[in-house]
Amino acid sequence: MIKVIGIVGATGSGKTYLSNILAKKFNGEIINTDASSFRKRLDIGTAKVKQKEMFVKHHLIDFLSPIEEYSINNFQKDCRGKIQSLNKQNKTIFLVGGSMLYLNSVIYDYQFSKVKRDKKKYLEYSNEELYEYLLELDPSLKDKYHPNNRRRIERAIDLIEDDSLKKQQTESKFYDTLIIFLNPERKDLYERINNRVDEMIEQGWIEEVKALKEDGINLSLVKEIGYKELDCYLDGKISLDDAKKIIAQKTRNYAKRQITWYRNKLDCIEVKVDYNNLNEALEEAEELIRSFLDGKITEENS
């Protein structure tokens, strides 16, 4: 069975830096599993890996337009093809990203199942946040549901999430996998998210959004956090400070959902991340990978 290493974590957890170092150490290449990084021109606002940060070759990155249709089933097929190709080249395969179901779609078969819905589960989400979460799980559903049709959206989310959990519990994996979950302290992660919004603005995020607008891209169809908010700012509908606050809040909410998913619905090993000493996480992850490749970590004991 092909060995595959997954590096996951909430947005801002350090996946880009740590995964590139690890992939280089183990003669690996990285297959991107972050849906936002599939899309060209959404660079600053998605914290997409920069060319200078790529210590190894990356796959499935920058191959779609900002609003091009691409389903999770398309990704499953494309990613599995890349895995086969890299395996034949004797490369260590790293799947890296924060999009929750994209990794699962590769490891497990992806089918819907019937579930009973928990009506209290989504009380803290607004209609817009629920709709955005649905699109994070499966972008191909964006034209199937109206953002205000809360009942149908909740049902769709339950179907997708339950299916993923059921597959983990009852079906064997396509690959021999080690999934490393990079997890900073929550307060440190949230502080980094807040600071990163300002950094992205300084790096030219507003100019990136302006260029998309000038080229006729309908930013209301861009699901990535921040682009709609900066579009509203450029149209004079909200202040820049308000846009930044909304972006930071949405990003923190997204990070919270990611952490909950990895802890409860993914078979992974948690590695704590201290932003002031990344070498600790690096060394722990390196030891896990070495043991996995040597056959000391298996499906049964991971």
Task: Summarize, please.
The chain is an alpha/beta fold.
Describe the structure.
By secondary structure, the chain is of the alpha/beta class. The relative contact order is 0.17. Helix 4 (127-137) runs parallel beside helix 5, helix 6 packs across helix 9 (240-265) and helix 7 crosses helix 8 (227-234). The chain has helices at residues 15-25, 72-88, 100-107, 127-137, 150-170, 186-203, 205-214, 227-234, 240-265, 278-293; strands at residues 3-9, 28-32, 58-59, 92-96, 176-184, 269-273. The model is unreliable at 112-116 and 166-170 (pLDDT under 50). The protein has a six-stranded parallel beta sheet with strand order 3-2-4-1-5-6, sandwiched between helices. It is 48% helix and 11% strand. It is built from ten helices and six strands, in the order βαββαβαααβααααβα.
What attributes characterize this protein structure?
10 helices, 302 residues, 11% strand
